[in-house]
Design a protein that fits this description.
By secondary structure, the protein is mainly beta. The chain has helices at about 285-290, 300-310, 340-355, 430-440; strands at about 5, 15-20, 25-30, 35-40, 45-50, 50, 55, 60-65, 70, 75-80, 90-95, 100-105, 110, 115-125, 125-135, 140, 160, 170-175, 180-185, 195-205, 210-220, 225-230, 240-250, 260-275, 315-320, 360-365, 375, 395-400, 405, 410-415, 420, 425-430, 450.
């Protein structure tokens, strides 16, 4: 009596042993696939073997997609290789018997020439639909269109979404390792079938690559979410405004040796601060200053980049904004400010970028004594100077922005041994040099005067003797 080996599952006297082959080698599938439905990947190979004790069962194989390359001719082993064109499709594979087999003793026909067996092979295509960013060093951003705004809706995850014309920015301090949550769509619908795959990614921050090692993901239905995809790589140690671009890859074999690039490449606006920001972190503020300090890798270079912009004469107006803390941010909305407001803007902007240690100080004109030359931020006049006309106080005229302006003090942002002078767009190394710059010998037309009837022709009020 002839018997056909069916590898423990008998289908009309036949057992079809199903194997999945990838470049890494052969992986035997679960013989429980009695419904002959399974999930394979691009370049995987389906092998169907039919053997008879003492002989062979001859078959031919075909597929309904030309990208599925089938064995050629009769044989007891047939294969199908699923090419790139099969991705995103369900491919029907048909195995056809080419001979009739009969049990000679029983006179029973076991299988008949022309008899067919069909297999539904799902070759999933993945696309990135959403990415959410988190992890140590991540800073949530207030979505405010004006720099003056301190409240608003926080930019929510997911920050990247497929099809969005403008993606939401993410913010991290330098040297962070972003954690990602990725939602993938799956085509075709795998229904109740499932497939274990591995996902990895290479992300780039302006040439600095971050490697996201392979992580297991189970595919089923029409979508799958990869939680907490982490990296040991870090963002560059710079202030940055640019993009976080990621290329994703998938492996369908158990040894994770055969990788294919997923079609979706994602690019998310990325803002990197020097350290954790201080103060309300709004989109407009952060984008503005990360751009001005983009690529800077030392505190000194960051301070210089921000200082030259924040205290620039282009933002100055003696009739500009008052000295309240919040008003300083209006300058980014197109306003102007006096020297104190510009110094406040620099101070607050450095804190926003994560650079600490700055203060706002006022440098006063001096006559009777050097005491009170440098004072904390407040609004007193001439700091106890006496000797002028009744009811007057000491000030000076300074030709700032091509105009003669009466000044009660010079507002400065002080950091790292430098005094950044509001409206001057530059720094000097001590308070006396500030006074010399704005009211002394460095400018022939700039001198101290008593207020009241003071004008540029009033008698010059000299400094105290010596130096502070």
């Amino acid at each position: 009596m002839k018997q056909l080996s069916l590898n423990l599952i008998k289908i009309l006297g036949l057992l079809w042993v199903l194997c999945q082959t990838a470049e890494a080698g052969r992986v035997t599938t679960d013989p429980a696939h009695t419904d002959r439905k399974m999930v394979l990947g691009v370049d995987d190979v389906l092998t169907i073997t039919a053997e008879e004790y003492g002989g062979s069962v001859y078959t031919q194989i075909s597929a309904d997609d030309e990208a599925a390359v089938c064995s050629d001719g009769d044989g007891d082993v047939q294969t199908v290789t699923f090419g790139e064109g099969c991705e995103g499709k369900m491919v029907t594979v048909t195995l056809t018997l080419t001979h009739t087999y009969e049990d000679e003793e029983e006179g029973e026909v076991i299988c008949t020439e022309g008899q067919t067996f069909t297999y539904e092979i799902y070759v999933p295509k993945l696309e990135v639909e959403e990415i959410s960013f988190s992890g140590t060093g991540n800073q949530r951003i207030i979505d405010a269109s004006e720099a003056i705004a301190t409240t608003g809706n926080e930019i929510a995850s997911p920050e990247w979404k497929k099809g969005e014309s403008i993606q939401k920015p993410v913010c991290y301090k330098k040297g962070s390792s972003p954690t990602l949550k990725i939602k993938f769509s799956i085509t075709p619908d795998l229904n109740s079938l499932s497939k274990s795959v591995k996902i990895k990614a290479i992300a780039s921050q302006s040439g600095n690559n971050l490697t996201y090692q392979n992580k297991d993901l189970t595919l089923t239905g029409t979508e799958a979410t990869l939680e907490d995809h982490t990296t040991t790589s870090t963002l560059s140690a710079i202030v940055y405004k640019g993009s976080f671009t990621a290329t994703w890859s998938i492996s369908t074999d158990s040894e994770a040796s055969n990788w294919r690039t997923i079609s979706s490449t994602t690019s998310t606006p990325l803002l990197c601060t020097w350290d954790s920001p201080i103060g309300p972190v709004t989109k407009k503020r952060l984008e503005y200053w990360c751009d001005k300090a983009n690529g800077k890798s030392t505190v000194d270079s960051i301070v210089t980049a921000i200082g030259m912009e924040a205290v620039s004469g282009s933002h100055f107006s003696s009739a500009g904004l008052g000295g309240t803390t919040n008003n300083a941010w209006r300058i980014l909305d197109g306003g102007n400010g006096d020297c104190r407001v510009l110094a406040l803007l620099m101070h607050q902007s450095l804190q926003l970028i994560g650079v600490t240690g700055s203060t706002v100080v006022l440098i006063y004109p001096r006559h009777a004594s050097w005491n009170g030359l440098e004072e904390p931020d407040h609004t007193k006049m001439s700091e106890g100077e006496t000797g002028g006309p009744s009811g007057s106080y000491l000030g000076y005229y300074a030709p700032i922005v091509s105009a003669q302006n009466w000044n009660n003090w010079e507002g400065c942002c002080k950091i790292g041994g430098k005094y950044w002078m509001g409206g001057e767009g530059q720094s000097v190394t001590n308070a006396f040099n500030v006074l010399k710059h704005v009211s002394g010998s460095e400018r022939a037309t700039t001198r101290q005067r008593w207020s009241g009837a003071a004008n540029m022709l009033s008698p010059i009020v000299e400094w105290p003797a010596g130096t502070p």
